[in-house]
Fold this sequence. Notes:
Radius of gyration: 38 Å
Number of strands: 16
Shape: elongated
Helix content: 25-40%
Structural class: alpha/beta
Mean pLDDT: 83
Low-confidence stretches: 268-290, 306-321
Amino acid sequence: MVRLTVDLIAKSRNHFKKKRGLSFPEYLKTLTHLHFSSKNIEDIGDLSMCQNLTVLYLYDNQITYISNLGFASNLTHLYMQNNNITHIDNLHNLQKLSKLYLGGNSIAVVEGLEQLHELAELHLENQRLAPGETLLFDPRTLHSLADSLCVLNVNNNNIDDIRDLAVLKELQHFSAADNKLRSMEELEDVFSLWPQLLLMDLRGNPTCRKPKYRDRLITVCKSLVVLDGKEINELTRLFLINWKASKEAKKKKNNKHMPAGPLVPYPLTSDFNVGPHPGYIYSHTNVQRWRPQPSLRAQNLQMNGLNRVAVSPAICSHVDA
């Protein structure tokens, strides 16, 4: 098993020339960058003598577990993509870490970053997930990164919902290509909360095939400069924004001139003294304004004070005959 230790550093030709004129312990204290990519490293040993380490390159190795980096309080860049890491652990002491590269591993849950308040870039693309598995985000990690994270890369991770990411209000670059995002409404809701967004890549998602996909996102993301690798023309943006505003204003105007309530059918009746012809359509306003008139029979009863119907002699003689 290949393990990264100070002995391995001592044997490295890349570092041998640099340490001339200094004792090895003194040289370790001056180290700011360590380049150990593609060395078949499986484990990180004791590197605590490298107290001024700021950049560590460990990509394209066989590392399964992040360990022994608690000493690196000055570390700002950590490159560990294309390893066999399954969990994000033991990074809480890296208070100055600003860029973290973990793409091409086997991470299923993004967690353990609650103490990294200066983290500006997080790269998690192409995780080797089990069939049907989706990259998930711990809400505690997301909330802790809300004020610092500017770049997030989650390409190709089976993601079908990004509502949890809405708290990342400082995002400027967002890459989520080759996922399973489908809902335009969801995207519009989330992106409207990212006022700093400049660059976005959603290529390869089902939502890209929706009508007016590009126009709708350009309208919502008012600071966006590049969408799916294509620059956004400012005149196009202004036209779309004005067109949307005009459309909404017209819709409000039409709604304002509509009747106060829904149209309702007046009950069918054969009594033509009760109201207008059967089937006449009334609005609530007209129903309240109209009052049924008393029938001729009711008028006669009121006038004569009788309990029987007043019948003309002509009609009576006709019936008797």
